Amino acid sequence: MKKFNLMFVAAASMAALAACSSGDEEASGGSGAEGSADVDEITAWAWDPAFNIAALENAKEAYNGDGDYEVNVIENAQDDIIQKLNTGLSSGTTNGMPNIVLIEDYRAQSFLQAYPDAFHPLTDVINAEDFADYKIATTSFDGEQYGLPFDSGVAALYVRTDYLEEAGYSVEDVTDITWQEYIEIGKDVKEATGKNMLTLDPNDLAQVRMMIQTNGSWYVEEDGSTPNIAGNETLEAGFETYKEMMEADIAKIVSDWSQFVGAFNSGDVASVPTGNWITPSVKQAADQSGNWAVVPMPRLDMEGAVNASNLGGSSWYVLNVDGKEQAADFLLNTFGSNPDLYQTLVEDIGALGTYSPAAEGDAYAVEDEFFGGQQLITDLSTWTDEIPAVNYGLHTYAIEDILVTGMQDYLNGAELDTVLENVQGQAEAQLK
Amino acid sequence: MNSLKRIFIYTFLSVAAIVSIFPFLWMLTSITNKSVDVTQGRLLPGTHLIENLKTLFATVDIVPALINSSIIAVITTFLTLLLASLAGYGFEIHRSKGKDIVFTILLLSMMIPFAAIMIPLYRMFGSISETAPLIGIDSLGAVILPTATTAFFIFFFRQNTKMFPKDLVEAGRIDGLSEIGVFFRIYMPTMKTTYAAAAIIAFMNSWNNYLWPLVILQSPEKRTIPLLISNLGSSYSPDYGVIMSAIVIATLPTALVFFLMQKHFVAGMMGSVKG
């Protein structure tokens, strides 16, 4: 009887496996085979009602094409969008998929590679030269332009001018500096004010990501898939700088987003090096108005490194389903060619696009009282154009998961070379 | 000696109690605070409760989400109880040659994670969307069907049926009840506590179910409560006071169901057959 049971188990699991594989084969043929019929309504998925959703709503009003269709904007959390897209696209069912979807730049290449027929190319629709270079690198694949670049993830150093002053520094002293200079200033600030210079989250290497992009390097080679960890001098410098910050005792350790925001809202840190989308969260603490300034991101102390980097940012994609022509038309006549729309985006929701012609508009020149009258948007927009373009490739988050443990080993005293070689080995084994 | 032991036990229990209750406490104080206070770790009750609730009701459609969640949870619970108890009863009471093999396969299906069958399921529902929109993609029916009964509940009912006095079945048959009659008129009333326990688990599972509703539901007006909360937390600058308010509202129904049926729940989990 036992034997019989075992055989049944084996048979059942084989049947299950067989079912899986045959499903995949069919799936790959299913997508993209739809016709190009006109539709009355197109659907767009994005996250964050205060930012991307608001941007879409603005775009609907600003639409100046002659298409006759409704745009149905649906809000989903970013992780939810990834889950839904992955499920829908891998099942090969276009049913229920949106026409336009927002994808974070770090993840774009993996979607484009995994589902090559699922996206509708925009090469002939938009003018790639109108957008920041570094965005084009992340939104195109295999010679075709798939994404319409949206928000700038330009990174900047948000500093508390009052704390700096107390330690004897001015805003100029932290402008265009290296991370080493930043650490020295941090030590003085801590001595004078007792405040930490920044927050660090040991489980999130955003800090390292921003550092290495200042020198045009990434976790993967140019091809987007070969891990570039061992022997990557820029990454080594990033790791060393990270450790120096930890050892200089100028970092407050946080473990999640709310602690991160809490740290600067409650005045516990003297600076926040991060993406410009943090502006609304910084301004949330209205009592700190006038005590903040924004300066370019510090750079790694290396030949060729610049004071400009990026964190996050995302772009619009059109799925290859019924209504793709309308979707492309909508994007072209809004985010793709309408500088006025970008003015309202800046004014109404503080969303900074990467459409270069928009930078001449009035809204970009507004002086922000919270930041001591700084022309924040103009500054950020200028820095956006200087961000070194890198190919984020397919595995940013997968490699970072491995790097996080590597960083822990390194902080605990392991040799940097050994750590990075281990990470390289693990990454190669996992991502084959 | 004895009192020392007591002190130790009570200290341990108190610490455990605080650790498990603290998140709830924090949730409850957070709904009365501004987002910025929540991120700064304020633990005292504030004065922002009304504003948080106002913002919540103004920014998201929480009432339709509650209705959707309720419809799905109630129907799923009803179907689970009916189908799983019928199956569990059949497996235990009726004799048949292959039933152990079938049961083994059924139990094996418990070991396949849902994520593994999700894509084939999505494909299946996608292929019937045109012909049967009521159970196609983006319908409440599609949320209910795959979860309407699971191997776990069949197993649960079968195990509990082992305690069911089989003489009652014989007695019923002798008194002229049909097989269906035996099930509905003898088995069901006798197994009340088992049904209560299963009802609580099924309701909670369904109410908190996230992954499947997430992928299969597309229209905002069909969203369930967990999806709505997930959205609330997705912005670059989330309003924690409002999120916590939504979470409290979402927790109330499960807490209510649990407290109403708590007595039966404990008895049912212990496999009692007292009617």
Outline the structure in words.
The complex is a heterodimer of chains A (432) and B (275). Chain A has a 5-stranded mixed beta sheet with strand order 2-1-3-13-6, with helices on both faces. In chain A, strands 7, 10, 11 and 12 form a 4-stranded antiparallel beta sheet that branches. By secondary structure, chain A is an alpha/beta fold. Chain A contains 16 helices and 13 strands. Chain A is globular. Chain B has 2 domains: 59 residues, no CATH class; 214 residues, MetI-like (MetI-like fold). Chain B is 73% helix and 0% strand. In chain B, helix 4 runs parallel beside helix 7, helix 4 crosses helix 11 and helix 9 crosses helix 10. Chain B is globular and about 70 Å long. The chains are: A alpha/beta (432), B mainly alpha (275).
Assembly category? heterodimer
* Largest beta sheet: strand ordering of chain A: 2-1-3-13-6
Order of helices and strands of chain B: HHHHHHHHHHHHHH
Classified in CATH, the superfamily of the largest domain in chain A is: Periplasmic binding protein-like II
Q: Find the count of extended strands of chain A (DSSP E, 2+ residues).
A: 13
State the helicity of chain A in percent bands.
40-55%
**CATH fold topology of the largest domain in chain B:** MetI-like fold
CATH class wording of the largest domain in chain A: Alpha Beta
Structural class of chain A: alpha/beta
Strand residues, percent of chain B = under 5%
Mean pLDDT of chain B equals 88
Largest contact between chains: A-B, 47 and 41 residues
